Amino acid sequence: MTTLTVALSGDCMATRGALITSDPAAERLRGLLRGADFAFTNLEVVPSEGRGRPVHNAAGGGGLIADAGVLDEITEAGFSVLGCANNHALDMGVDGVLGTLDLLDARRIAFAGIGTDLPAARRPRYVDRPGGSLALIACSSTFLPGQEAAAPSPELPGRPGPNPLRHGATLAVTGTQMEVLREIDERTGLRARRAEARTLLGIDPALPSPERLTLYGARFQVADEP
């Protein structure tokens, strides 16, 4: 039976060179990565040759942008497969994503999780070795609205970006707590602001049922315990 080895790491935030230092432990790490059939890391940085402009990224807490040469440091260290879907993928905007794609393709580095549109960002990437193959899919649940890749339509091209993992949360509150939230909704004027939406839709979008309420960007539902 053929054995395949995969080395897995977390976020790679290398923004400068010398990824592997002269420390003996670092050299052992390089040996482990190079000895694996596949060595994976999450590219939590935008490699750039000046393409794009820095954008405000409240979800990421600042920008992680590096010279394109950091990609050579990463592969020289032994990493061979990169995930690129994360909250820093758009730190240099859409042009920065397109620049990242070009830099990775030019170096023939296997990666997944970003693309010129949603189908491309979702696409698995395959890496072949003499003993077998690896398929990589990458996605991220942390991104600002509008940063995620979008599919093309008959009228418009798709939007470049990361492959989104969409999710939502509903907070459980008691009936008494729900009444307090409803009172806040009414007395602060938030409910009054939705008058136009109620006219257009015929219902209040924040109050889909007596048991549910959407307020301050959160969804609440009545339950026995909070």
Structural overview:
This protein has seven helices and 13 strands. The chain has 226 residues and is of the alpha/beta class. It has two domains: 157 residues, no CATH class; 53 residues, no CATH class. Strands 1-2-5-6 form a four-stranded parallel β-sheet, covered by helices on one side. Strands 11-13-12 form a three-stranded mixed β-sheet. A two-stranded parallel sheet has the order 3-4. β12 and β13 form a beta hairpin. The radius of gyration is 23 Å and the shape is elongated.
Task: Fill in the keyword field for this structure.
28% helix, three-stranded mixed β-sheet, 2 domains, 226 residues, elongated, alpha/beta, 13 strands, four-stranded parallel β-sheet, single chain
How would you sum up this structure in a few lines?
The chain has a four-stranded parallel beta sheet with strand order 1-2-5-6, covered by helices on one side. A three-stranded mixed beta sheet has the order 11-13-12. It has helices at 24-35, 70-77, 93-106, 118-122, 175-187, 190-193, 195-201; strands at 6-12, 38-43, 46-48, 65-67, 81-83, 110-112, 114-115, 125-129, 132-136, 161-162, 170-173, 212-215, 218-222.
